[in-house]
Amino acid sequence: MKQYINGNTCEGLGEKLHIVNPATEAEAGELATASRTQAEEALAAAAEGFKAWSGLSLNQRSEWIHKLAAAIEEEKETILDLLISETGKPLDNAEYDYGMLIQCLRYFPEEAKRLCGSIIPDYDGRFRHLIQYRPLGVVVGYLAWNFPLLNLGYKLGPALASGCSCVLKPSSRTPLATLYIGAIAKKINFPAGVFNIVAGSGKEIGEAWNTSTIPKMITLIGSSETGRELIRQSATSIKHFSLELGGNAPAIVMKDADLANAAKQIVDLKFTNVGQVCVSPNRVFVHADVHDEFLAAVAEQTQQIRLGAGRDPQAQMGPMISAGDRQRVLGLVEEAVAQGAKLIVGGTAPESPAKGFYLSPTVVDQVRPEMRICREEIFGPVMTVQSFTDRDEVVREANNTPYGLAAYVFTSSLVDAFELSEKLEAGSVSVNEPFYAVHLPHGGVKESGIGKDCSKYSLEEYYAVQRISIRV
Fold first, then answer.
1. What average pLDDT does range 37-58 have in this prediction?
2. Among residues 104, 164, 278, 374, which one is catalytic?
3. Whether residue 97 is found in the same domain as residue 228
4. Is there a domain that residue 442 lies in?
5. What is the pLDDT of residues 251-284, one digit of tens each?
6. Does the annotation mark 374 as catalytic?
7. How confident is the model at residue 106 (pLDDT cuts 50, 70, 90)?
8. Any catalytic annotation for residue 351?
9. 35, 214, 303, 364: which has the fewest C-beta neighbours closer than 10 Å?
10. Main-chain phi, psi angles of 401, to 5 degrees
11. HSE of 430 in the Cβ direction (CA atoms, 13 Å)?
12. What is the span of the domain harbouring residue 374?
């Protein structure tokens, strides 16, 4: 796989990188990483590309974006194979990941057509004050490994639609499918420099891009620690930021909730993508009156989850991304049990499949807020459960985290649905069913970041607002 810089694919000049298939532990691919010089070349190409791309009409940009989406769709199966090999995803999860890239490329050009300027009245009648949106310029985007193509769509879609150019860095863990999008762009002669995909050392490439004065915006999907370091490093010039960072989502199950629905919804979301999801419900608070019934339903459903990867029709949950990540999560479980938590389901590396970084879907009851498993983002297939009786106390505990990305409430009371949602410190709250879509804003508060992905709110971040006052 090659780098995509200034409209061409090229070999990286850095060290060799071996990508491991987490489902088989075999090599998924080899990549010559980009050097710092190549990262700087990509940034310079984006600066030139912006001049031409921002000068095109929205209809002209839309034609190119839709052409790119169509070319990607023609190679769906090849892309899915690459995605499966580098992530270990089951097919349905890989199709969702891939599908979100297409959705973003289709959605944002249409949403850009709905982004209208305005006229502000002049109270003396002497001026006409016009407000218009202008693309910011070059955007730097860092992508996470858990949903490589979804993350690409979240950044590429609004950048291209707004008239910005961009340089994008996929995770070194999962760069293959993302780099292949660059090969497709070259095949259709997408305008040079408008977007560039560079894979390699996060330290080397990140330092080159962050410290440069060329970027007008930096956007990241990653950890809170990485976000803080990025902001420190990029203070060489005034830049815009859109950062989707860590999470530790609470789910509150009230005693009047539909328990069968609550158990199904929480299990489905918790164990999708092996729990390697930023909005995964890590801390489940269940009213004491229904705790045992809810826990029994969760345990039954969790035990039915079939492990596997790729095109295996029975696969429901794949492996974790690496052996080290699996060991980290097992350590959290073992520590919690040693401190008094009760292991209900899982908690081990399974005997089958024999190969791969699999971890049995796990449920741990009777956890306490001070345990590390409750304080840290698990990012693995482990659900923690604790009971409550006091409504105000459960809200305090749900908010007792530096993160604030997502939260969930299950109740039959419309009053509780609104009141609990308003008190929860989270960028999104879903009641009775988790729901995410490209037209809905996604982002957090507190240490979970700033700005949004998806929706018109994300698109607006790629523009500067300009006022023009004309004396009449």
1. 98
2. 278
3. yes
4. no
5. 999 999 999 999 999 999 999 999 999 999 999 9
6. no
7. very high
8. no
9. 303
10. -160, 150
11. 21
12. 249-437
pTM: 0.96
Contact yes or no for 357/374 (Cβ under 8 A): no
Residue 401: the pLDDT is 97
- The string of pLDDT tens digits covering residues 357-377 is 999 999 999 999 999 999 999
The verdict on 86 and 198 lying in the same domain is: yes
- Split into its structural domains, the chain has a count of 2
Q: Are residues 175 and 85 in the same domain?
A: yes
pLDDT tens digits for range 433-454: 999 999 999 999 999 999 999 9
Per the residue annotation, which of 40, 41, 111, 244 is the catalytic one? 244
Residues 24 and 94 in one domain: yes
User: How big is the CA angle at 428 (ends 164 and 131), to the nearest 5 degrees?
Assistant: 40
Q: Taking a C-beta distance cutoff of 8 angstroms, is the pair 453, 154 a contact?
A: yes
- Identify whether residues 169 and 214 lie together within a single domain: yes
Residues 189 and 263 grouped into a single domain: no
Cα-Cα end-to-end distance for the chain? 59
